[in-house]
Specification:
mainly beta, Lipocalin, 8-stranded antiparallel sheet, 8 strands, globular
């Protein structure tokens, strides 16, 4: 499912999210990728490495820029999810909130579905 027909995300600043699905795959429990949005910056974990970068959000259209990350080796399923997450994140073009309050980031790299993550001070 893409973000089509879902309410667009007007602002994500000050929110934090934890992945429940990355390009159709479930992340490893306890190692879910996260994303935290500030005014124009993002940060989080891929489940293995920390990442950071910039973003713009205009009318539900999202673009990520200058995304960098630490370079720890990630094995097995965690590494596979990390690769899918980074591909989907950097290729995301839409951000929408679905009826369950989940953030959906979608683009040519697949869709990331995220729940609010109050444990990290977000949503």
């Amino acid at each position: 499912m893409t973000g089509e027909g879902l309410p667009v995300a007007a602002s994500l600043a000050g929110t934090a999210w934890r992945s429940v699905s990355v390009a159709g795959a479930a992340p490893v429990a306890g190692r879910e990728p996260t994303i935290r949005f500030e005014a124009d910056r993002i940060s989080g974990t891929t489940g293995c490495n920390q990442y950071f970068g910039g973003y713009t959000l205009v009318g539900g259209a999202i673009a990520f820029s200058a995304v960098g990350m630490t370079r720890m080796a990630c094995d097995d399923a965690i590494g596979q999810i990390e690769g899918a997450f980074t591909s989907a994140l950097t290729a995301a073009t839409t951000a929408a909130i679905d009826a369950e309050g989940r953030l959906r980031l979608a683009g040519t790299g697949g869709e990331i579905v995220l729940d609010p993550d109050p444990a990290t001070g977000g949503s």
